[in-house]
Amino acid sequence: MKVQPPDLRIQKLLDRVLGTPAYQWDDITDPRKRRGRRWTLKHLLNAAFAGLLASCPTLRDVEAMTEEMGPTGRQYVPRRVPDTTLWQVLGKLDPQELRAKHRAQVRAAWRSKSLQPVGLPCGVVAIDGKGLGALEHDAEGTAQKAHRSHDGSPYWLTRALRAVLTSAQGKPCLDQVPVDGKTNEMATFGDFFEDLMRAYGAGNLFEVVTVDAGMVSRANAERVHAANKAYVMALKGTQPELFAEAKRLLDHPGRKPDCQSEVEVFQGHRVQRRLYRTVDMAGYNARRQCK
Q: Do residue 129 and residue 215 come from a single domain?
């Protein structure tokens, strides 16, 4: 059977980026003992990076891809990289070293004008909670306990906060941290946002931060405002008093939206999105305390 060559677009991208300083791996500590190393850490990380670019779902697919790369790819990966070797090494790397390397790569992309806003006047970062998988154990106390709806049996969910530059065409991830099993997204947001500002806040990579309802609090809003960034926060029934006040001000027949979308069907429901701009909510907490 004739083996098809890898996607030439992936090859061209490897040629363009792997020679830049941000994609050198010299500052990543090799967790292996010196004796018996068959592969350099550089070649293993290059293989993993190429697998990400090619959307390989498993390390076995990365192994197959490196086998198919042929002579044109040998400057990055000399020969087929076994999936077991990748599995043994990747899980032992220092996550903080990888996090610092990732931030350096994002900043390099920004300096090269690759992350300019598309269709928006400014940069926008979305901070959102993500479920990374359900486990049958608590992962040494790092996963959150939950119960299945059909039988009530317990499972543990590994969660993370992720920041994505949604204004850029490629929507790259800027940072990600795990949410400890003993806390939640709202409490994790503060330290995560401070880390984000230390890594990217010096420039104008983004000006607006959007968050979902799980992180909405006055303290988090004030933290974003103090960093001289604007925020867009989702308001739902989890904030009952504030949600009721917003509905009282906005949801009545005499109030017309500034703009609205066409009606669409989503999961069996007719949905129409409306945009209102108002300062009527300003000072709500002070008014409520005076009553």
A: yes
What CATH number is given to the structural domain containing 193?
A: 3.30.420
Phi-psi category of residue 94: left, alpha or beta, with phi > 0 → left and psi -120 to 50 → alpha: beta
State how many domains the chain has.
Answer: 2
pTM: predicted TM-score of the whole model, two decimal places: 0.81
Dihedral pair phi/psi, residue 169, rounded to 5° = -60, -40
Write out pLDDT tens, residues 102-133: 999 999 889 889 899 998 899 999 999 888 88
Which pair of tokens denotes residue 148? 């299945």
Check whether residue 89 and residue 120 sit in a common domain. Answer: no
Q: 132: domain range?
A: 115-234
Distance CA 118, CA 114 (A): 11
Q: Contact 83/59 with Cβ under 8 angstroms?
A: yes
Helix, coil or strand: residue 58: coil
Using an 8 Å Cβ cutoff, are 165 and 204 in contact? no
Tell me how far the alpha carbon of residue 120 is from its chain's centroid: 20
What is the C-alpha to C-alpha distance for residues 157 and 133, in angstroms, rounded to an integer?
A: 6
- The DSSP call for residue 125 is E
Segments of the chain with pLDDT less than 70: 1-11, 13, 70-75, 284-291
